[in-house]
Design brief:
0% of the residues lie in helices and 48% in strands. The protein has 123 residues and is mainly β.
Length: 123
């Protein structure tokens, strides 16, 4: 069974940093597109960052480009999202996702989702 498990969320002050982790099981993290989405209260879900199959390319939404960095550890089958210079508007539930085509923006719906980890940024 394919499973994605997020961790690393929490509460930080504006300007601070967090590192999210997504541990995968049941498949290779480089076998398809993989990345992170988020959904703020009262808003639609949006793509944040994505990685191409094989891990060669990285993609970021305009709102996080230059502040967030996507990395991976193939041996540990884990995807990371380093988030720096966090802003109040970054507050959201972050979800790890995998198994879509594109790779960015996604042109198909991800096949797998994690349970989510909450990120809260305060002033």
């Amino acid at each position: 069974q394919v499973q994605l498990q997020e961790s690393g969320g929490g509460s930080v002050q504006a300007g601070g940093s967090l590192r999210l982790s997504c541990a995968a099981s049941g498949f290779s993290i480089v076998s398809s597109c993989m990345g992170w989405f988020r959904q703020a209260q009262g808003k639609e879900r949006e793509g944040v960052a994505g990685m191409s199959a094989g891990g060669g390319n990285r993609y970021y939404s305009d709102t996080v480009k230059g502040r967030f960095v996507l990395t991976q550890d193939n041996a540990k089958k884990t995807l990371y999202l380093q988030m720096d210079s966090l802003k109040l508007e970054d507050t959201a539930m972050f979800y790890c996702a995998a198994g879509w085509s594109g790779c960015w923006p996604p042109v198909s719906k991800p096949s797998y989702w994690g349970q989510g980890t909450q990120v809260t940024v305060s002033s």
